[in-house]
Amino acid sequence: MSDSTDAQNLNQDAAEATEAENNLPEQEQNVPEEHKRRIRSFVLRTGRMTAGQQRGMDEFWPKWGLTLEQGMIDPTDVFGREAPLVLEIGFGMGHSLLEQAKTMSDHNFIGIEVHTPGVGKLMAEAGDAGLSNLRAYEDDAIEILKQCIPDGSLDLLQLFFPDPWHKKRHHKRRIVQAEFAQMIRQKLKVGGRFHMATDWENYAEHMVEVMNQAEGYENTATDGDYVPRPDSRPVTKFEKRGERLGHGVWDIIYRRTC
Ligand SMILES: C[S@@+](CC[C@H](N)C(=O)[O-])C[C@H]1O[C@@H](n2cnc3c(N)ncnc32)[C@H](O)[C@@H]1O
Question: Which Pfam families match (predicted)?
Answer without folding.
Answer: Methyltransf_4 (PF02390)
